Amino acid sequence: SSMRQSNSASSRRGRRSSSAGARSARKGAWAARSRASSSASSAGVPIGAVGGGYQIANSDNLLAVCIQAEMAYRYNRMPANTKFLSTHNLAIRRDVLKQINGFDESYPDASAEDNDLIYRMQKAGYGLLLQKENQMPHHHATNIRKYLRKQFQHAFWRVKLYSRHPGMAKGDDYTGLKDVLEPFLALFILSFLVCFPLFITYNSSFITNLTCDSLLATGCFLIIWQLFWAVKVVYKNSMGEDKLNRYKICNRALFLALVGFLRSFARGLGMAAGIFIHLFVKLKTFGFAKGVFF
């Protein structure tokens, strides 16, 4: 009996050591490829950083699965010589990091500090290389309320980010026209909803009808846009999953469309708050805002 227990313990230690060895080998291979890539150059531009993509670490949650599907769709469209890399899976040359003075610590939360770092790196004359085969497991959000709050924070700090890097406001290889327009459409809807009682109070039928038509048209456009995007994202992502049936595809697409619709309003409100605070900071009207928000 003691011999069998000894053999069992030895086999468990062997499996753990082999698993750890495999992880170390993967990390070593990723580091070696990153060093080789960063020493190369693209079109005469020295490579300053090499990054990879995402893998999902909590695939048992529907929200996390939908977030991963959207991220995978975006990363698959990005070129190798890209304009953006996320710091969740990134190797940066030490001399480049020192040259651009590292992260900007005026960002108090994980929101736009990685974008700022990457944009400053490109302004310093360095290129970025994306290696899609190198992927890092990541725990995505599982609570929709917390996820929307985080999207509000992202949009809030994007105002500061784009005021420093206005050329990136139209989007990079990860973000695009959809991400730029959605917050404005959501704010347009919210502004009409806020003003609608005033139109009824003044009993202006023309303005009331115009408001209703504008709300209906903008809302339908935003919903259709979200549905189209969600179906495209989920369908592309499902091509690699053999057992994903039509019911699950429809379920994920509808849920992602709903999340995207709500996220538009969270981002719109965050952007509005960021513009408001940033305006007062620049005018030095409220001095306390600089210490609290910026």
The helix fraction, in percent, is 55-70%
Q: SS-based structural class?
A: alpha+beta
Report the β-strand fraction as a percent range.
5-15%
Average pLDDT: 80
Total count of helical runs of at least 4 residues: 9
Distance between the termini: 66 Å
Radius of gyration: 24 Å
Q: What is the molecular shape?
A: globular
**How many extended strands?**
5
| Uncertain parts | 1-27, 284-294
Main β-sheet: number of strands, strand sense, barrel status? 5 strands, mixed
Structure description:
Helix content is 66%, strand content 11%. The radius of gyration is 24 Å and the shape is globular. The chain is an alpha+beta fold and 294 residues long. It has nine helices and five strands; from the N terminus they run αββαββααβααααα. α6 packs across α8.
Question: Can I get a quick summary?
Answer:
With 294 residues, the protein is an alpha+beta fold.
List keywords for this structure.
single chain, 66% helix, alpha+beta, 5-stranded mixed sheet, disordered N terminus, globular, 5 strands, 294 residues
Secondary-structure blueprint of this entry?
Layout: H1 2-38, E1 41-42, E2 45-56, H2 62-77, E3 81-82, E4 90-92, H3 94-99, H4 113-123, E5 127-138, H5 144-164, H6 177-201, H7 205-238, H8 246-283, H9 288-293
Helix pairs in contact: 2-7, 2-8, 5-8, 6-7, 6-8, 7-8
